[in-house]
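[step 3/7] inverse_fold.run input=structure_tokens len=390
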């Protein structure tokens, strides 16, 4: 029996054909494929403007620039996220402020969000923005978040790295907050190897994002050098080198066509897991709100320590010995050395995130898994849980 890795990308002949076509076309960097990918992505999500960049980290950085973040500003986010979400705040010499998670969805707790905003307002240093992260692909409760943000004058930049395709009530993620950032990193629901997209309905921000992603130059390279264009360009801002290549966009175009199919398969796998673990008292299955479409980027189980004689790390080790790859999403940011040392955080400062961290395991969930693979993960998890039952 072979091992079941934590992740394998789903790359077919369409992706390979698209990349080869791009290579043969003679146009490798941002060009017609990027424009096509942006157009089709905007249509898929239902946003007015989609701006392709070379990572979600770049997307978040440019989004914060577009909303006018400045040195010394405060931006609120969750500690239960990847490095990128808070790192980009530091790019501005601004300060990330963490708000603990809701212990059901593991998304930012909006009651605590409002409380924190009110605390910050007192000394006259109102936060400028909030970055909700749609953890595992389950949208945050956006109605209260938008309402709180509007009431206190905060911009909403969504980290939707996990959330394609996802919906909150009757809206697609990508059409809710001020700006939404997506990731096409190798493990994400659709991939371009590395890549990202910024979605917004605001035309001025979209223009600014397009300029900033390529050196602050007002026109894209392909427009400058295409036959109808010319050699002249102007630097109108201090920009970055964040553009996506046509090679990557070719991958993205093929992946986007399969996005619904890939999502259906993730959803099936999640349903198989939840059905199998439902009656296993040693394990809590992930919650799914009835008014959302979960993208099932991650399937995260929570161990019940009171029902087990083994801890999370031991559980992962046993699964590894049985050939099952797993991961942990996430080690909360506030317990990492950089944050601990910079801000003096203690683990208990965000108790829900810390307590959750100690008992979460992300199981393999990707469309290339066969039903038999899913069955093997189920059997292995059940076996470890039963052998170490308290
Ligand atoms: C993957 C990820 C990112 C960063 O995406 P990149 O495309 O690798 O820059 C940001 N936030 C979250 C929550 C992620 O999981």
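[step 3/7] decode complete -> sequence:
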């Amino acid at each position: 029996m072979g091992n079941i890795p934590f992740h394998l990308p789903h790359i077919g002949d369409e992706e390979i054909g698209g990349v080869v076509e791009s290579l043969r076309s003679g146009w490798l960097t941002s060009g017609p494929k990027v424009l096509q990918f942006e157009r089709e992505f905007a249509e898929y999500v239902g946003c007015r403007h989609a701006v392709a960049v070379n990572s979600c980290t770049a997307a978040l950085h440019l989004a914060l620039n577009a909303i006018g973040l400045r040195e010394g500003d405060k931006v609120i986010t969750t500690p239960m996220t990847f490095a990128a979400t808070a790192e980009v705040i530091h790019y501005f010499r601004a300060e990330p402020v963490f708000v603990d998670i809701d212990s059901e969805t593991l998304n930012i707790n909006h009651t605590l969000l409002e409380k924190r905003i009110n605390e910050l307002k007192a000394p006259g240093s109102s936060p400028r923005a909030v970055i909700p992260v749609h953890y595992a692909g389950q949208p945050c409760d956006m109605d209260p978040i938008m309402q709180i943000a509007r009431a206190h004058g905060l911009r909403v930049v969504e980290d939707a790295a996990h959330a394609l395709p996802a919906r909150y009530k009757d809206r697609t993620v990508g059409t809710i907050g001020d700006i939404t950032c997506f990731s096409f990193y190798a493990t994400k629901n659709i991939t371009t190897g590395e890549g990202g997209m910024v979605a917004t309905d605001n035309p001025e921000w979209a223009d600014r994002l397009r300029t900033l992603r390529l050196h602050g130059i007002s026109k894209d390279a392909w427009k400058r050098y295409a036959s109808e264009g010319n050699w002249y360009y102007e630097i109108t801002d201090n920009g970055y080198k964040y553009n996506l290549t046509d090679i990557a966009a070719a991958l993205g175009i093929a992946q986007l066509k399969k996005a619904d199919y890939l999502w259906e398969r993730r959803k099936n796998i999640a349903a198989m897991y939840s059905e199998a673990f439902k009656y296993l008292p040693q394990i809590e299955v992930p919650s799914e709100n009835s008014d959302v479409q979960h993208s099932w980027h991650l399937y995260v189980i929570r161990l019940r320590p009171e029902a087990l004689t083994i801890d999370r790390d031991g559980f992962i080790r046993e699964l590894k010995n049985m050939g099952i790859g797993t991961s942990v999403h996430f080690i909360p940011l506030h317990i990492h050395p950089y944050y601990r040392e910079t801000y003096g955080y203690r683990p208990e400062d965000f108790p829900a995130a810390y307590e959750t961290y100690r008992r979460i395991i992300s199981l393999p969930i990707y469309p290339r898994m066969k039903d038999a693979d899913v069955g093997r993960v189920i059997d292995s998890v059940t076996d470890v849980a039963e052998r170490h039952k308290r």
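[step 4/7] annotate
Residues 55-57, 81-82, 84-85, 133, 159, 161-162, 183, 185, 196 surround pyridoxal-5'-phosphate (CB under 6 Å).
The first strand starts at residue 49 and ends at 53.
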